[in-house]
Amino acid sequence: MRIEDAAAKMTTQYLTRVLSSFTKDLGRLEEDEARDYIIRNAEELAKPQNVERRLDLFDVDHSTRVVVHYVLEVMLNIPECALDERELCERVRDREQRMLDEAAKDNALQYTDAQSIDIFRTVLEVAFDDGSISRDEYGLIERLRQKLQITRKQQRLVEALMGVFPSPGGELHSYADITKALLFLQHQGIIFYCNRAEDGRNVVLPKEFHVGVKKVLGIELSDNARELLWQNMTNAILASVLRAQNLPTSGSKDELSERLLLAEIKPSEGLNSLMNDDLYNICGSLPGVNVSGTKQQRLERIVSHFDNLLIREVPDDADPAVLFYEYFVELAKRDRENLLASKVISKDIDIERAFEEATRYLFREKLGVELVTMPGSDHPDGCIEMPDGSLLMWDNKSTENIYTFPNSHLKQFKRYIRDSIEKRVTCFMVIVPEVDDIAEENCLRLKFESQQDADVCVITAEDLKWVAENWRNLTKKQTFNLSVLDQQGILSRKRLEQVIRVLM
Fold it and tell me: Rounded to two decimals, what is the model's pTM?
């Protein structure tokens, strides 16, 4: 969820918390004023350096720092960036419990040099002697951790054995502790509390904040992205990384990958142990990744590639149309890196078919309308019948560029509309990745030249998917009113929301 979408689901009290994190000079604002101010300043609010400034965890005690870290870690691993508060608390406690369970095992630190652990524990004990860790102490501990080749997970295990993790006495954080951390993050303008969320997912970490938050936490990739990265490596690469981390190198590829995941090896630290030629070969195996440059540049490109992938959870046995729908926006943009990496397509030629099938799924399953079967092959990508018997047609236009509605498409769509002899076409819709304002001209031209006075609209895949997933939250009606889409010109998100509220 983006800042704009989250702000739309917040009332004055929660909007004010965000505002107070970056400005004190506005005085009291009405709800709409506060929301508009946040949206207008979204880019500034999301700058990584500003996120880092607001998320200074040295202003809180170590116990709060731990729970804040886990709250944000959980949110970074939610594709939708939104979660119910109760479920968030349970996920935080589950992560803490898993760490305590592992620390309780006799072999918890079996692959770590005993002398290094002893030195590291001694330093931690000194640092925790006064009950907190200062900024300088943290910097020293971090440098020592890297020098002794101790992972961040191993540090948590040592702290658990010392009884200072997750909280003093080695106790799990309570629901009250986690709620307190959420309140802190709201006042820092990091977590948005969407108290108007119809689906109950009221805790939101806006997507725009992810880069800055990851930098503060020292996290490079989400759990799913790390899993995908290691799964894309060869057995030889995995064994080499494991060997450098003093971990066993025997087993199948799945076992090697799982071992790296469980050890929570930071990708850049693991890959840094490889030869430059190995990194060259890895870059060459990833779609769209440049192979040239220094070792550091190649390493950064590999991590960045997996960080930018959109990893969505779709059951293995799900209908292919479900998978296509999940990547609807990426299909419109022809985002081949994401589509290939997520196995949505196997080659570029699959994009158009998948985009069309995803759209049919959207109308059929999300909007609940029956599709009209069109004879022959020279016809638009889809058609539905309006309540009055007229037709709404659509055509998918995937492109890596901003859609301008070229004249060639004008001629193509005019033919589709005129060829519909039996029933009048009341609306022709073009579904695109992003649209230029210039497209309005040919929308009007096609309306007047169609000979059926058909409305012609252009809508982005992102906004059409937004309609499909949010219309029920904006109305009490049980059926979707197709007149929402029977509009002229470019259909913006704001206009769509207004039309839904008026018509439904």
Answer: 0.72
Tokens found for residue 418: 């005129």
Digit-coded pLDDT (tens) for 260-296: 888 888 899 899 999 999 999 999 988 878 999 999 9
Give the pairing of strands 489-490 and 455-460. Answer: parallel
Name the residue type at position 96: E
**Which tens digits make up the pLDDT trace of 61-115?**
888 989 999 999 999 988 778 999 999 999 999 999 999 999 999 888 887 888 9
The residue written with tokens 């992938």 in the block is: 309
Rounded-to-10 torsion of CA 316, 97, 60, 28:
50
Find the largest Cα–Cα distance for the chain.
85
pLDDT at 47: 94
User: Are 385 and 391 spatial neighbours (Cβ–Cβ below 8 Å)?
Assistant: yes
How many Å apart are CA 485 and CA 459, to the nearest integer? 9
Read off φ and ψ for residue 91, nearest 5 degrees. Answer: -70, -40
For 93, the enclosing helix (H) or strand (E) is: helix 85-103
| Side chain identity, residue 139 | G
* DSSP line for 295-361: HHHHHHHHHHHHHS-------TTS-HHHHHHHTHHHHHHT-HHHHHHTTS-SSTTHHHHHHHHHHHH
Residue 48 near residue 209, CB atoms below 8 Å = no
371 and 384 Cβ atoms separated by less than 8 Å: yes
pLDDT interval class at 246 (50, 70, 90): confident
| Residue entry with tokens 């979408």 | 5
User: Dihedral angle at the C-alpha atoms of 469, 48, 85, 222, nearest 10 degrees?
Assistant: 80
Q: Which amino acid is at 337?
A: E
Backbone phi, psi, residue 435, to 5°: -125, 140
Is residue 95 within 8 A of residue 74, CB to CB? The reply is yes
Please give the single-letter amino acid code of residue 286: L
Q: Which region holds residue 368: left if phi is over 0, alpha if psi is between -120 and 50, else beta?
A: left
What is the pLDDT averaged over residues 24-46?
89
Is 207 buried (19+), middle (13-18) or exposed (0-12) by CB count in 10 A? middle
Q: Residue 270 in contact with residue 241, Cβ under 8 Å? A: yes
